[in-house]
Amino acid sequence: MNFLAHLLLSGSPADTPQYDDIVVGNFAAEAVRGRAGLLAYPEPVQRGIRLHRFIDSFTDTHPVVRRTTARLREAGLGKWAGVVADMGYDHLLARDFARHHPAEPLPDFAQRQYALLHARRHEIPERLQPLLHHMRHGDWLTGYAHPAGLEQALQGLSRRVPAGAIMATGAAAFLDELPAYEDDFAEFWPELRAGVMSSDK
């Protein structure tokens, strides 16, 4: 899953103890490697890092996600199929955010996340700092709700990642078979949420 899903699965300020720490850890985990990297953070932030790793592991090994990535590989995405699946699923989550998170509109949720992460940016690994800046100023989380936002995100990634040019076609591949991916996501998302709720990270 991509940024929106990770942040949403961090919990809520009202119901999750040390929520801010978990959000920071969940976001920072993109650039935290190994046990040494984990232990460099205080325990509450470690919980967010472990949550991020759990979400990634659960997603990467889930048969529904493997069905999605197999379809994207057949569409020509090759080794980048998993990245396109992650971002495509975030598109579907953002598009139907009111159904998945009725307590808060997506623009409000996004602005709250940006403010939290910006306030604690000194705790986020240096290599993620430019990404956080662009995410906040470009309002990526809200942009994911629109097909054009998905396309823009994948085109940007295709330019930044070595040998990733094929990802520029990822949005078209995902949207061309959208009903199939909608079915995949509708099956997978409740299982991911249940897995997060029942896990001991």
UniProtKB/TrEMBL annotation:
GO molecular function, one term: [acyl-carrier-protein] phosphodiesterase activity
Keyword Transmembrane found: no
GO terms under biological process: fatty acid biosynthetic process
Keyword presence, Lipid metabolism: yes
Keywords: Hydrolase, Lipid biosynthesis, Lipid metabolism
Pfam families given in the database record: ACP_PD
Name of the molecule in the record: DUF479 domain-containing protein
